[in-house]
Amino acid sequence: MVNTDAPATDLTDRTLVARLIFGNMAAQTLRAAVRLRVAELIGDGRRRAADVAAGAGAAQQPMTRLLRALAGLGLLREHGPGTFSVTPAGALLDPGHPDSVASFVRVFTEPVITRAWEHLDDSVRTGDVAFDAVFGTDFFSHLARHPELSAEFNAAMGQATGEAAAALPYAFDFGRFRSVTDVGGGDGTLLAAVLAAHPGLTGVVHDTAEGLGRAPETLRRHGVEERCSLVAGDFFRSVPEGSDLYLLKSVLHDWPDDRAAAILAHCREVLPPGGRVLIVEPVLPDVVETETGAHAADEGVTYLSDLNMLVNLGGRERTRGDFEDVCHRAGLSLTSVTPLPEAAPYSLLEAVAV
């Protein structure tokens, strides 16, 4: 017998849950689009599904179904039966687009990322990094053993830095400094943008040899190669001395508190009087904010990033209090936290020597 007194489930609630259930399928749809070069093959105009299929070496009917799914996700537009164009969001899947996220899509839909997520419940129970158990080594050691994946990962990190690189040079007073070292700076995307906007600055990009692989090209493209040097090394051992500003973007969240504090301590060791450490990372609120719109979406992604750190790396996203703690352990004092709206959900955290 049906219980007529039971409360009805709000259809919008069911829709929300359904969207979340299908989230992994949507991600794999993007992965297929990038691997099949859909955005490149369609280009700036309108293309028939048959032509896209031929260019991709795919069957026409399944390609049509993929293109319609991409249209349903807002990445393509279907103008008539079987004729498609790329939306502005879909254009970001083209590796040739200046703001492309193609490498980011490839990396974050790779089994090397997604397999550990199948063991999220185990990581929640134990606090252990699932990646290490699945692959028999830690994430960065695995990358070092697979050069092509490492190169793709470094490219993805450069793409993920695009919005911050556009906003940071004008969101912080770099003019009061002489030299900036970007610790864990990868391909130099962030520092190149800062140096291009501030001709009086010199800089250093510090990362592993693999991480610096694309940096010379990035610096040349921005015309700052004469004012920036590359220093390969391990920030768990030391960071280069000689700068009065040390910049870390999306570095600390990769590591647990003790290792994050160790990185900051090496920056503290070489910090001259009046020097600063500038951290660029999301800052979680003390309580999850339940609002709607773009800000809520940014925060939702940050909490997923926190879980990604749990299962794949052992790091974490942090609240202001968490950052104050790791800075204190390193002999630093956090003096300000400034949101970076143009590159949400990032904030600028400025620290000085105690």
What would the keywords be for this entry?
three-stranded antiparallel β-sheet; globular; eight-stranded mixed β-sheet; 18 helices; Rossmann fold; 354 residues; alpha/beta; Arc Repressor Mutant, subunit A; single chain
Topology, element by element:
Blueprint: H1 11-21, H2 23-35, H3 38-42, E1 47-48, H4 49-56, H5 60-72, E2 76-80, E3 83-86, H6 88-91, H7 102-108, H8 111-117, H9 120-126, H10 130-135, H11 139-145, H12 147-160, H13 162-167, E4 179-183, H14 189-197, E5 202-207, H15 215-222, E6 228-232, E7 245-249, H16 257-270, E8 276-284, H17 294-313, E9 318-319, H18 320-329, E10 332-339, E11 346-353
Parallel strand pairs: 4-5, 4-7, 5-6, 7-8, 8-9
Antiparallel strand pairs: 1-3, 2-3, 8-11, 10-11
Describe the structure concisely:
By secondary structure, this protein is of the alpha/beta class.
Account of the 3D structure:
It is a single chain. The chain has about 350 residues and is of the alpha/beta class. It folds into two domains: about 90 residues, Orthogonal Bundle (Arc Repressor Mutant, subunit A), CATH 1.10.10; about 240 residues, 3-Layer(aba) Sandwich (Rossmann fold), CATH 3.40.50. The chain is about 50% helix and about 15% strand. It has 18 helices and eleven strands. The longest helix has 20 residues. The N and C termini lie far apart (about 70 Å). The model has no long low-confidence stretch (mean pLDDT about 95).
